[in-house]
Amino acid sequence: MTHEAMFYKELKNDQVQCSLCEHRCVISSYKKGICRVRENREGTLYSLNYRRLIAVHVDPIEKKPLFHFYPGSLSYSIATKGCNFHCLHCQNWSISQIKGERIEGEVVPPQTAVQNALDSRCLSISYTYTEPTIYFETTLEIARFAREKGLKNVFVTNGYITSEALQCLAPYLDAASIDLKAMSDTFYRNVCGARLSAVLERIKEYYELGIWVELTTLIIPGYNDTEDELKKIAQYIVSIDKNIPWHVSAFYPTYQLTDVPPTPAATLQKAYRIGKEAGLSYVYQGNVGQGENTDCPSCGKTVIQRKYFYAENMITDDSCPFCGGNIQGIGMSGK
């Protein structure tokens, strides 16, 4: 199913320029953008993955990962094919990286997606797994309808959306889990095919728009695991808000980085230490089965215990039950 795309302008000779993501592709007639799901047909840009859902699951919100947004709730999680990054370590490469011409997926109207979320007793809908920016038209439709029905909307993203597209979507977004993959433009160019500066600008914009933000860094041995690199990431987050949660996750060999070893537990512990020393209130270690509890930044006691996405929440009125200190987030109370 195709649909005229949003965010593009016509150029000479039937070319168009897409302004949905920061690649801002100039696309000739019957050619596609970097994402492979937006095609120019004689001067009109079309979304090729419109409403074509390739993945649908009910996930704990912690899987996004979001630890400070209605902890313990369920999120109806959807995706279409395609991505505007080509990360060498992509965990969902089978659905994000398009090699052929065919765009698979079941056509699902927005009303159906929202009703399915409600029937599944989900509190939110997460646009996730691939990159939701490149199925913007589908996301916007569903997000609007979800808001009408009382559901929250969650964007799990690489942060490469343009400001103009984000401004359009922001009124319907409640939370964003954003990848901050490194603090090196070389990493972004060589590993992802993108630029760091655009991601840094957008993270700040999400925050300034009042969307709840949590950041994730997948730590890859030999690529982004030096103490200097991790310090730069932590310092950048603190410069925005020390209460933004930072998830440091373990890498496992996959896709085009099968020759790189898994991240040692000691590296995650180092990242945790660096984050706390920089002044971050909430730092979590992911993919290792520990280091995922929420501790009160005032007294240090555990207020949410997590194991395999299950959360035991002791927070009352957004406050620590032991010292009364505030626990930052949205919908944090468990009692």
Labels describing this entry:
335 residues; alpha/beta; TIM Barrel; 3 domains; eight-stranded mixed beta sheet; three-stranded antiparallel beta sheet; 19 strands; globular
Task: Please characterize this protein's 3D structure.
The protein is built from eight helices and 19 strands. The strands form five sheets. An eight-stranded mixed beta sheet has the order 8-9-11-12-13-14-15-16. It has helices at residues 93-96, 110-119, 136-148, 163-169, 185-192, 196-208, 227-240, 265-278; strands at residues 3-4, 8-10, 16-18, 26-27, 38-41, 44-47, 52-53, 55-60, 74-79, 106-107, 124-127, 152-157, 175-179, 212-219, 246-250, 283-286, 294-295, 302-307, 310-313. The protein has three domains: 3-47, no CATH class; 52-292, Aldolase class I (TIM Barrel); 293-335, no CATH class. It is α/β, with parallel strands linked by helices and 335 residues long. β12, α4 and β13 (175-179) form a beta-alpha-beta unit. The longest helix is centred in the last third of the chain and has 14 residues, at 227-240. The protein is globular, with a radius of gyration of 20 Å.
